[in-house]
């Protein structure tokens, strides 16, 4: 599980000490070792600075980025305990949960992610789709498939165009069932059917050009004839497919909801 790449920002960021700003930049720039050295130096020499807790946050994230999850968690714990800023506290809590994920403490991480999801919805720096995705991953690793699927579905339903929607869909148990020999059930929208493959490919290309995702041409057999169907989307529930069908209809595309199976992820 990758560590969170969120960084604390507030209205006073222009006044942030250059050492702390430098440490942020080093961490964001892929130099966690240098970021740790810079932030730790600031911690050691600025006992009374109001930005000291930010330095602890950067130090903790820097250690986590190097796989030193236990030490990273210790520094993030200090930031959580000492700061009065809700933004910094929420992001440090996510970082601590990331560390527990790295340590294999999945149930603890799940509870910590959930606490942030419940208590810090107002914090703009928290990406809710990322947080829900991590909740799903933590639950999945803790062998709670039902709870994991709930959060993966939440990501898809609330943030279907976001960067975590596709990953959440692939992690859903419909795509990765516990039985590795079981083909997962999904739903798709049937858009067109042709007797010639080139016509189907033309229609599929047109749909892709309009922004439709997961457009496929599928060869099917009906009695002794062969046809070529144009399928749109892959959905983990009939309700999700139904909502997509309504959207397609509003855009002028008539479709039907159909079930299918896909090859399991290995």
Protein traits:
Serine Threonine Protein Phosphatase 5, Tetratricopeptide repeat, Alpha-Beta Plaits, 266 residues, 4-stranded antiparallel beta sheet, alpha+beta
Can you describe what's shown?
The chain has 266 residues and is an alpha+beta fold. It has helices at residues 18-28, 32-45, 52-65, 69-82, 86-102, 106-119, 128-141, 145-158, 165-171, 197-209, 238-250, and strands spanning 185-194, 215-222, 225-235, 256-261. The chain folds into 2 domains: 13-126, Serine Threonine Protein Phosphatase 5, Tetratricopeptide repeat; 185-261, Sporulation related repeat (Alpha-Beta Plaits), CATH 3.30.70. Strands 2-3-1-4 form a 4-stranded antiparallel β-sheet, with helices on one face. A hairpin with a 2-residue loop joins strand 2 (215-222) and strand 3. The longest helix has 17 residues, at 86-102. The protein starts with 17 loop residues before the first helix and ends in a 5-residue tail after the last strand.
List the helices and strands and how they pair.
Layout: H1 18-28, H2 32-45, H3 52-65, H4 69-82, H5 86-102, H6 106-119, H7 128-141, H8 145-158, H9 165-171, E1 185-194, H10 197-209, E2 215-222, E3 225-235, H11 238-250, E4 256-261
Antiparallel strand pairs: 1-3, 1-4, 2-3
Largest sheet: 4 strands, antiparallel
Domain unit count: 2
CATH architecture classification of the largest domain: Alpha Horseshoe
Mean of pLDDT: 87
Question: What's the name of the CATH homologous superfamily of the largest domain?
Answer: Tetratricopeptide repeat domain
Work out the number of β strands: 4
Instruction: Give the overall shape.
Output: elongated
Oligomeric composition of the shown chains: single chain
Reported by name, the CATH topology of the largest domain is Serine Threonine Protein Phosphatase 5, Tetratricopeptide repeat
């Amino acid at each position: 599980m990758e560590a969170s790449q969120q960084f604390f920002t507030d209205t006073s960021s222009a006044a942030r000490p250059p050492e702390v700003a430098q440490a942020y930049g080093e961490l964001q720039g892929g130099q966690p070792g240098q970021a740790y050295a810079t932030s730790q130096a600031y911690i050691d020499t600025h006992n009374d600075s109001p930005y000291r807790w930010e330095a602890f946050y950067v130090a903790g994230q820097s250690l986590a980025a190097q796989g030193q999850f236990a030490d990273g968690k210790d520094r993030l714990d200090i930031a959580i305990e000492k700061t009065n800023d809700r933004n910094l506290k929420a992001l440090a809590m996510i970082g601590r949960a990331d560390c527990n994920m790295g340590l294999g403490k999945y149930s603890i991480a799940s509870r910590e992610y959930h606490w942030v999801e419940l208590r810090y919805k107002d914090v703009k720096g928290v990406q809710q789709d990322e947080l829900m995705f991590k909740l799903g991953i933590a639950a999945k690793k803790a062998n709670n498939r039902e709870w994991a699927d709930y959060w993966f579905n939440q990501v898809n339903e609330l943030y279907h165009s976001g960067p975590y929607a596709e990953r959440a869909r692939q992690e859903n148990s419909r795509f990765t069932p516990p039985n590795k020999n079981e083909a997962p059930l999904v739903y798709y929208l049937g858009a067109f059917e042709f007797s010639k493959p080139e016509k189907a490919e033309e229609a599929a290309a047109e749909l892709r050009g309009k922004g439709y995702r997961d457009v496929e041409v599928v060869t099917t057999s009906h009695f002794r004839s062969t046809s070529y169907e144009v399928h749109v989307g892959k959905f983990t529930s009939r309700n999700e497919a139904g909502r997509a069908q309504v959207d397609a209809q509003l855009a002028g595309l008539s479709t039907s909801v159909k079930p299918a199976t896909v090859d399991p992820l290995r």
